TrEMBL record:
Location of this chain's protein in the cell: Secreted
Organism expressing this protein natively: Magallana gigas (Pacific oyster)
Protein name as annotated: C1q domain-containing protein
Superkingdom, taxonomy of origin: Eukaryota
Position of the signal peptide: 1-20
Length: 186
């Protein structure tokens, strides 16, 4: 559990430091604190449900749902265009489809999605997480070479779909530096 907690804290610091001044008026520590608390609560649920027994190996991976995909080419996306995360690094449970760039929930439950977009200096990096065609969460990134994104929890029902779209007139996404991940908590 300590290793997972450390990873979550590092993720919070990475995302928070990259995008903290875009939370208009909220301090970086406030944002980091909220992100860390959300991750801590998710980890607490997982550890209480498995009775404290942690399977950090590959045993049972067929029953786990988790994916990470990255962009394979540097591309400019117009508003409302699905961002193409074509290179799949992991896809336990085969719920991420790199043909339509969507995650389809194989079962009801609480899920976490995290994304990070690397942008070019003359473009904004506004993105949105879409659930079944409706905006669930947005991330804003001003012009400049930046890495920005978000991590969110969401209740999904079997067959619900989640994906990322551009949320600005034109965004520039660097290849291999931009990623989209998701996993089921329970």
């Amino acid at each position: 559990m300590k290793t997972i907690t450390l990873v979550c804290v590092v993720m919070c610091l990475t995302f928070g430091m990259a995008s903290s001044h875009y939370y208009y008026g909220k301090g970086m520590m406030s944002v980091l604190s909220k992100q860390a608390e959300a991750l801590y609560q998710g980890l607490a649920m997982v550890s209480s449900e498995d009775g404290g027994h942690h399977d950090h190996g590959y045993h049972g991976h067929r029953h786990r749902i988790a994916f990470t995909a990255v962009t394979s080419s540097t591309t400019t996306y117009s508003s409302g265009t699905t961002i193409r995360f074509t290179t799949v690094k992991a896809n336990y449970g085969h719920a991420y489809n790199n043909g339509n760039y969507r995650f389809t929930a194989p079962s009801n439950g609480l899920y976490v999605f995290s994304w990070s977009i690397a942008t070019h200096t003359s473009y904004k990096g506004h993105t949105k997480l879409v659930k079944n065609g409706s905006t669930y969460h947005q991330a804003r990134c001003s012009s400049g070479y930046q890495q920005c994104g978000a991590t969110v929890t969401i209740i999904l029902h079997k067959h619900d779909q989640v994906w990322l779209e551009s949320d600005y007139s034109s965004i520039y996404v660097y290849a291999t530096y931009s990623s989209f991940s998701g996993w089921k908590l329970n």
